[in-house]
Amino acid sequence: MADQTRVLLDDIDEPGLHTIEVYERLGGYQALRKALTTMEPDEIVAELQASGLRGRGGAGFSMGQKASFMPKGTMDKYLCCNADESEPGTFKDRLLMQKNPHRLIEGIVIAAVAAGANRAFIYIRGEYVLQADILNAAVAEARARGYVGANILGSGHDVDLVVHRGAGAYICGEETALLDSLEGKRGNPRLKPPFPANQGLFRGPTLINNVETLSNVPIVIAKGAEWFKQRGTEKSTGTKVVSVSGNVQRPGNYEIELGIPAREIVYGLAGGPPPGRKVKCWFPGGSSAPVLLEEDLDRPYSFESMAEAGSMLGSGAIIVVDDSVPIVSLALRVARFYRHESCGKCVPCREGTNWTVKMLERIDRGEATPMDIEILDQVQQNIMGNCLCVLGDSMAMPVRSMIAKFKDEFIAHNERAREAADRLAVGAGLSSEPVDAAA
Amino acid sequence: MPKPEPKLITFEIDGREVQAPEGMMLVDAARLGDVEIPFFCYEPKLGAPVGACRMCLVEIEGMPKLQTSCSTPVKDGMVVSTTSERVKQAQNAVVEFLLVNHPLDCPVCDKGGECPLQDISYGWGAGRSRFIEPKRHFEKPVALSPLIAIDRERCILCYRCVRFSQEIAEDYQLVFLERGDHTFVGTHDGHPYVAPFSGNIVELCPVGALTSQAYRFRARPWDIEDAGSICTLCPSQCNVKYTTRDDTRVLRVLARDNQGVDDGWLCDKGRFGYQAIHAPERVTQPLVRDGGALRPVSWERALSEAARALARAGGRSAAIVGGQATNEEGFLVQHLMREVLGSPHVDSRPSGVLDPAQARALARPDLTAAVPDIEWAGAVLVLDTELVDEMPILDLRVRKGVRRNGVRLVVATSRPSSLDPNARAVVRFTPGAGEAFLAALGAALGDGRGLDELAGRAGASPEAVRAAADALRDAGPVVVVWGERLSGGERGRQAVARLLDLARTLELAGTEGAGLLEVPRGTNARGLREVGCLPNLAPGLADAAAAGKSAGEIAAAVPEEISALLLVHADPLSSHPDRGAWERALDRAGSVIAFADFLTPGLEEHATVVFPSESEAEKDGTMTHPDGRVQRVRQAIARPPEVLPNWQVLAELCERIGKPAGVVSGPAVFERIVASVPFYEGLTLAELGGKGVRWQERDGAGRVPESTLPEGGLEEPPPLEAADLRLGTAPSLWSGPVVEHSPILRFLLADQRVELSVEDGERLGVSTGDEVAVTVGGASVRGVARLRSDVPPGSVFLVEGTQSENATALTNGRPRAVKVARAAREVTPA
Fold it and tell me: What are B488's strand-pairing partners?
C-alpha cells in the first residue's frame, strides 16, 4: 500500500483534537500569534502568494492572489469560508471540520486579518449538523481565549466569526449564491463582475475560500512558503486531501502530495475496484469533472495534468466507476443531480439540464434514435460557456465526456433497451410484429 | 449623488464604428449603431442587470467567453461581434432552450402579435424545434390577483416582475418558488398580489404569462391602435397611451415612459381606471332638474336654463373648479365669472386661501424642483404628504433615488408613511402642526434655540427633528416634496411662510437640482392656479382686479351673497372641508350647475343643471404638472354622441349670456391662455409635443412676476391646545368615482377606517375591526377601527373622499380635537 503525505491530516487521529486544549498542546494558534505579532497583513498575503497555495474548492485559483484583490481602505470587508461541501464525491471538508475545527478557525482569522476583513462567516451545508455543532463549540472556545473577537492577541485586529448553516442547496456552494443566501435571500448566483473581492457580501469586498484552503493557511504561515512548496509540483504546491469513492475497495479521505500518479491513489491507497473488475472511467475532481479512462490513471494527479487530460482536479474527489456500471445510468445519475440542483435563474442551465435528463431517460428506455445522441451532445455544447454560473457546465462537461468516450455504448444501450421493450410488448400481445418462433 | 456627466467613446460593432457614452451597457450602445441585440431580462428601469436570460450574448475581442451585452459596459476601442458563428449558435441555443417549456399557444395568447418571444424566435432562432419530450404543466391561467392573470406555462422566468416587486415597488410580494425547471413566480402562501403598482408587471412581461384581467381576450394587436395622452387622475400626470378599438373604446392603458414625469411606471388606478369611461352609470347627456328629479333634456334646454340662471345671478355667481379641469376649461370658467358675469368668486383650491405673494414666490422658476431632481438630490424631504396615495408615481421616484443613488430621505408627516422604512430620519407631528414642525426644523438647522419648545408645539420629538436637520444639512441639493395640506386651513399662510423660510435656509433657490415640489390635491392644481382659477389671482399669477371669495367663504355666503353655483368637475361635498356648510350651501343655492361624469349623491340631490363631462380619453387640452411641465391631454376616442367638449359648453354659456368669449376651438383657448399668462409666452401645442415642456426651462420663464423670499417676520406657531385625540385626514388612492365605477377596481374601494395608536385603542377599549364613531361638534363619522403600532398616541386618522362616511364631515381647516368611541352596530331594517 502506498503512503499518504500527512500535513493537514497530521494529527487527525489525536483524541480530542477538536478541543482547544489539545489543539494548543499540539502547537495550535502559534501561526496566528506569529502572523499577528510579527507580520503585516501585506506580508501574510505575500507569503500565501509565494506558497503557491491554490484553492481547494474546485476552481484552483491562487489563494494569495485572491486575497491580494481585496481593496485597501476602511470599509466593511468580509471573509466567507465556503463549507457548503456539496459536490458529489467530496467529503474532505467534513473530516477537516469535524476533527480539526480549530485549524480552520485559525486559518480564517489569519486570512481575515490579511484581507482586512473584520467579519467572517463559515457557511456550512445544512446537512452537516454535527460539524456545525463542533464548529460552534470551537468558535466559542477560540473567542474565550481571545483568538476570535475584538483586539485579537492585543494586535488591534478584530475578527468576528459566525457559523451559518445553509438550507440544503448545492447552488449555495457557488460563491455568489452563497453570498445571497447568507444575506437572507434566495440562493441564486449573481452576475460577475462585480466580483466578490470588489462587491460581495452586503456589497462589501469579500474574500471567499474553501475549508481546506483556509486550513492550509496556518501551515503556510507556521512553516513558511518555502517549506510548503517543497511538496507537490511547481504549479500544484502542497498536499491535497482526496476523497476517493465509487467502486473501490477502501473508499475514504487520503492526503497525498500533489503530482503523484493517480493510479497510486486509486489502487495504492483506495485498493482499486473489487476483484475481477476493471476501472471503466473515473472522475478526477467530483461529479462535474469530465470522466477520464483507465489509462489516464498514470497521469500525475495535479491541477495542470488533469487540465491537460481534458478534465480537472476540482475539489479533489475521485469517483471510480468500474465496468459493471452502464454508462447511460452514470450519465443519468449525474444529469439528474444537476437538474435537481439547478437554481433556475439562467435559461441554458435550467432548460438544458431538464432536457438532458429527459433525453437520457429516453435512451435508457430504448426510445431514442442515433440522431438523439447527436442532439444530446449538441445540447451539452449549447449549455457550456453560455450560463450565468458553472452549474450548467458541471453537468454538460461530464455528460459530454461520456458521450465522446462511450458513444457506441450509448447506441448499444438504447438498442438493447428497445429490443427488450419490444419483447415485452410482443409477450403481452401488444405488438403486431410477427413472432419468430425460433427466437 | 450628482448626476454623472457622460463622456463619448468609440467602439466597433459588427464592423461599424459607433460612438456611445462611456459605461453605457453594450446592448444599448449597439442600438446607437443600429445593431439590435435581442434580450428578455434586461430592463434598465429595473436596476442593475441580472444576466438571467442569456439571450444577449456577444463576442468581444480579447475575451475568451461570450459576454452578456446587457451587463458589459462599453469601453473605448472595444471590438464586438453580434453575428459571428459562435454568437449565432448561442442565440439559436437560447431560443431553443426557451421554447423547450414554452407552450406554442400563440394563436390563443393575448401577447401574440406583440410578443418579444415571438419576435426574437423569428429573428434569432433556428426556426425548428428538436424537443419532443413532454413540456412542463401548470394549472392555467390562475388569478395572481383580481387584476392580473398568470399563465405559468408561458413564463420564461426572466425575473422582470419579481425584480419590479422587490426593487421598484418594494412591496416584496412576488418571489420565485421552487427551483430549476420547477421554478415559478408566485407569492408567499399564494396570497393575491395586490399592491398600488402591480399592473406594471403585465407591461414588463415579455411573454403572455402575465395578462391583465381587464384586457384578456378583448382584442388582438391588429384590432387596436395607440393614442398618446396623459393620465388625469392625479397630479402625477403620467404619460400614457390608450389602447383603443374602433375609435370608440379604450381597452387598455399603457405607460408612455416620460423620464421627466413618470419614469415609465403607472399606478393601478391609472392603468385600470379607464373602465369608468365606459361605465353605464356615466352621465352622457345633459340633465335638468324637473319635478324634483334630474331628467335628460336637449342641449338647447340645458344650455338656456343654465345661461338664464347664471345671467340672473350675475355677480352673485360663484365657481368651484375641480382639479381635473384642463387649463382651457379653467381659463374659460374664470373668464365666464370675471368678465361675463362680473363675479370675482372662482376657486380651485379645496384647502383654503393661498396668499398671492406666496403663490408667486412658490412659482419662482429657481425654486421649483423638477421630478427627476428627486432621483439625484442630496436629500429629499417628504413633508405632510403620503405620496403613494396623493401622487403615487413620485413614491417610486423617491424609492429609486434612495435605493440607487443614496438619496437621504427625511419623512415628516402626521400619519405614518409607507416611505418610513427608506428614510434616514422620520418625524411625526400632530395633524395640522406642519407650521410648528417647520419652525422647529428651522431652529434645528440654525442655532437650535427654542427647538424643544417648538417641537413641543408640533407634537414632535426634538430628537427626531434634530435627526431630520442633520440629514438635510450639508446633504447637497435638497428637494422638498410638500403636500397642499400643509398650506391649508387657518394658519396656511404662516405655514407657507415657514416653508419659504426653509427654502431660504437650505438655499434651494441658488442650487442646481434643488427646489420645492408641491403635491396638490387636484390633478391640474398648478395649471388652474396659473390660468387664474384662484379668487385672488388673475391669469399669470397677477393680482385679481377684485379679490373674490375662497371656496369656504363661498359656501358661507349662500344664499345671502351668492345664489348660483357652478361646479366644474367638482363636488364639494366629497372634496371640500366642512361638509355641513356645503350641504347648507347647496341646499339653499338658487341654482347649482355642474359639469360631471358621474352623479355623486351631492349632485343627484342638489344640481339643477348637469352637463356631461368628457372623459379623460375624450378630451383635448392642456394641463400643467406640479413641476411646471405643460402637457397635452389628447383625445383618444370619440365622445358619446350627446357629450360636447366642455370648453365649447363654457364658450356657449358666455355667448348666451351676451358676451362671447371669442374662441372657436380648444387650441384657440390655449392661444388665449398663452396670451394671458406671461410666462407661457410663445408656447404652442406643437412645442408641447408628446412629452410636454417645463415652462421654467423656456425663455418666457423670466416673465413670471418678481418675488423675493420674505426674510424674518415669521410668526410664532401657536401652542398645541390640550386635546385627547387630534384628527388627521388622508386621501386614499382607492377612493373616488374612478374606483367606484371601474368594475375591476371596485374590490379596492376604500371604506372609512379609523387609524389609532395601540395605546389609545387600549385606553378606549377599541380593537382592530371594531366599528367606531369619531365625533366632534355634533358631527360624527363611523368607520372600522385599525390599531397601528406606528401611529403616534394622540392622533387619529380618517380617510378622505370615501363614498359614505366621508371625513369632510369633521374637518373645517382648523385643528380638531375629536372623540372616538365604539359604536353600536347599526341594525339595518330588513
Answer: none
Residue A169: closest CA among chain B residues belongs to which residue? B179
What's the average model confidence in pLDDT over B280-309? 97
Same domain, A244 and A374: no
Q: What is the pTM of this model?
A: 0.94
Distance CA B114, CA B207 (A): 9
Asked if residue B230 lies in contact with residue B527, where contact means CB atoms within 8 angstroms, the answer is no
**Cβ distance of B97 and A351 shorter than 8 Å:** yes
Structure-block grid coordinates of residue A153: 492577541
A358 and A218 in a common domain: no
- Pick A354's closest partner by Cβ from B66, B178, B181: B181
For each of the domains in chain B, give its residue range(s) and CATH number, in order of start: 8-98 (3.10.20.740), 287-350+524-703 (3.40.50.740), 357-519 (3.40.228.10), 725-822 (2.40.40.20)
Identify whether residues A157 and A292 lie together within a single domain: no
Phi, psi of B694 (to 5 degrees): -80, 125
**Final residue in a domain of this structure, among A322, A342, A358:** A322
B181 and A340 within 8 Å at the Cβ level: the answer is: no
**Residue B167 DSSP one-character state:** I
Q: ipTM, 2 decimals? A: 0.94
- Lowest-pLDDT range of A1-15, B348-362, B763-777: A1-15
Alpha-carbon Rg for chain A in angstroms: 24
Residue B217: which region, alpha, beta or left (left: phi > 0; alpha: psi -120 to 50)? Answer: left
Tell me the pLDDT tens digit for each residue of B757-766. 999 999 999 9
A346 to chain B nearest CA, in Å?
Answer: 4
Of A181, A196, A228, the residue at which a domain comes to its end is A228
Domain interval for residue A168: 20-228
Among all residues of chain A, which has the CA nearest to that of B88? A382
- Measured between alpha carbons, how far is A209 from B539 in angstroms, rounded to an integer? 70
Between CA B615 and CA B242 the distance in angstroms is: 13
Q: Which of A386, A389, A393 to mutate to test the interface with B (most CBs of B within 10 A)?
A: A386
pLDDT of residue A377 exceeding 70, the answer is yes
Question: Helical H runs in B110-217?
Answer: 116-124, 160-163, 200-204
User: Which of B608, B518, B595, B528 shows the shortest CA–CA distance to B347?
Assistant: B528
Tell me: do A245 and A349 sit in the same domain.
no
Q: What is the pLDDT of residues A272-327, one digit of tens each?
A: 999 999 999 999 999 999 999 999 999 999 999 999 999 999 999 999 999 999 99
For residue A428, the model assigns a pLDDT of 73
Provide the pLDDT confidence category of residue B829 given band limits of 50, 70 and 90.
low
* CATH at A83: 3.40.50.11540
- Are A244 and A314 contained in the same domain? yes
Distance, CA of B312 to CA of B563 (rounded, Å): 9
pLDDT score for A436: 52
* Residue A2 included in any domain: no
Running DSSP on this structure, what letter comes out for residue B613?
P
CATH number of the domain encompassing residue A403: 1.20.1440.230
Average pLDDT over all residues of chain A: 95
Please give the Cα distance from B707 to B33 (Å, whole number).
48
Kindly give the interhelix angle for A30-38 and A211-223, rounded to the nearest 10 degrees.
Answer: 70
Asked if B693 and B370 count as a contact pair (C-beta separation under 8 A), the reply is: no
| pLDDT digits 0-9 by tens, B66-122 | 999 999 999 999 999 999 999 999 999 999 999 999 999 999 999 999 999 999 999
Q: How does DSSP assign B508-538, residue by residue?
A: TTTSTT-EEEEE-SSTTHHHHHHTT-BTTEE
A233 located within any domain? no
Domain count, chain A: 3
Say how many CB pairs under 8 Å bridge A and B. 94
